[in-house]
């Protein structure tokens, strides 16, 4: 039987999923690559993988999309690792450098600037090393592990998860396990069980991860990242995708085995 080809985000917030996949018997059934979010999305679009933990902004580009898991990378309020950093308050920012790692965070930042913060900075697609260009009236959207410790470097930090929840009253889904074809329900049940194994063993996982000064990893997993793809996140995801797709609409399905409660 061919292995299930997976691509997953390589960030800290995905470690519980990876731990569960390789700690369970399911590990022998997968071929897993770890990538930055934009590469996860590209692999799904190109057919290189069967299932990807992909930024949700790619969904409108897919011919059809299936949410193939009960779990995601989401937040209910502050997410801590998707933020705009600045030396000035947002109303004084003239340019915003946009992290090249994830389209979801970029699109969320654009929506929040326009509809929530009511500002119109120049949006600049960033290149590697752009973090060093932040200063004066130039702010930067940075995501992932590179954000750790930056709250001590910059006087102004705007958490996109927190801003979205304050604005909409909803959680947010940054990345979800997506396929372009329905996957065998029995396989998905085993996949979900493996992911849950990782989430159920976060204390054990944190003991083997490298220590980080002034950063509580277990608290981050439990309080900043919200992993269950529940009804509130399903509603939030559909609202965000509607904002992206507009009148064109999009196709989003729940895999038959992904029973979101």
How is the topology of this model organized?
Blueprint: E1 4-9, H1 15-23, E2 30-35, H2 37-46, E3 51-55, E4 65-75, E5 82-86, E6 95-98, H3 103-116, E7 122-125, E8 138-143, E9 156-159, H4 160-168, E10 172-179, H5 185-200, H6 202-208, H7 217-224, E11 226-228, H8 231-245, E12 252-254
Parallel strand pairs: 1-2, 1-3, 4-12, 6-7, 6-8
Antiparallel strand pairs: 3-10, 4-10, 4-11, 5-8, 5-9
Helix pairs in contact: 1-5, 3-4
Question: How would you sum up this structure, described in words?
Answer:
It is a single chain. By secondary structure, the protein is an alpha/beta fold. It is built from 8 helices and 12 strands. Strands 1, 2, 3, 4, 10, 11 and 12 form a 7-stranded mixed beta sheet that branches. Strands 7-6-8-5-9 form a 5-stranded mixed beta sheet. α1 links the parallel β1 and β2. The radius of gyration is 18 Å and the shape is globular. It starts with a strand and ends in a 7-residue tail after the last strand. The model is unreliable at about 255-260 (pLDDT under 50).
Q: How is the main sheet built?
A: 7 strands, mixed
Supply Rg.
18 Å
* Number of E strands: 12
The oligomerization state is: single chain
Helix content: 25-40%
End-to-end Cα distance: 31 Å
Strand percentage lies at 15-25%
Order of helices and strands: EHEHEEEEHEEEHEHHHEHE
Number of helices: 8
Which stretches are low in confidence, meaning pLDDT under 50 for 5 or more residues running? 256-261
Category from helices, strands and their pairing: alpha/beta
Describe the global form. Answer: globular
Instruction: Compute the average pLDDT.
Output: 90
């Amino acid at each position: 039987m061919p292995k299930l080809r997976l691509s997953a985000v390589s960030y800290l917030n995905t470690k519980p999923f990876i731990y569960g996949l390789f700690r369970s018997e399911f590990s022998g059934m997968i071929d897993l690559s770890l990538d930055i979010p934009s590469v996860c999305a590209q692999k799904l679009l190109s057919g290189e993988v069967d299932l990807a933990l992909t930024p949700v902004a790619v969904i409108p580009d897919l011919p059809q999309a299936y949410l193939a898991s009960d779990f995601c990378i989401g937040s209910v309020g502050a997410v801590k690792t998707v933020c705009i950093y600045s030396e000035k308050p947002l109303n004084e920012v003239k340019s915003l450098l946009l992290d090249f790692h994830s389209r979801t965070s970029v699109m969320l930042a654009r929506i929040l600037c326009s509809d929530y913060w009511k500002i119109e900075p120049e949006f600049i697609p960033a290149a590697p090393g752009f973090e060093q260009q932040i200063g004066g009236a130039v702010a930067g959207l940075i995501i992932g592990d590179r954000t750790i410790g930056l709250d001590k470097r910059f006087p102004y930090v705007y958490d996109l998860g927190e801003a979205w929840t304050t604005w909409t009253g909803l959680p947010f889904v940054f990345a979800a396990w997506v396929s372009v074809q329905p996957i065998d329900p029995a396989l998905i049940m085993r996949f979900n069980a493996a992911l849950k194994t990782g989430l159920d063993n976060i204390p054990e996982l944190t003991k083997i991860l490298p220590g980080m000064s002034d950063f509580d990893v277990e608290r981050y997993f439990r309080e900043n990242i919200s992993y269950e793809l529940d009804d509130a996140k399903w509603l939030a995801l559909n609202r965000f995708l509607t904002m992206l797709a507009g009148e064109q609409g999009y196709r989003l399905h729940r895999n038959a085995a992904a029973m979101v409660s």
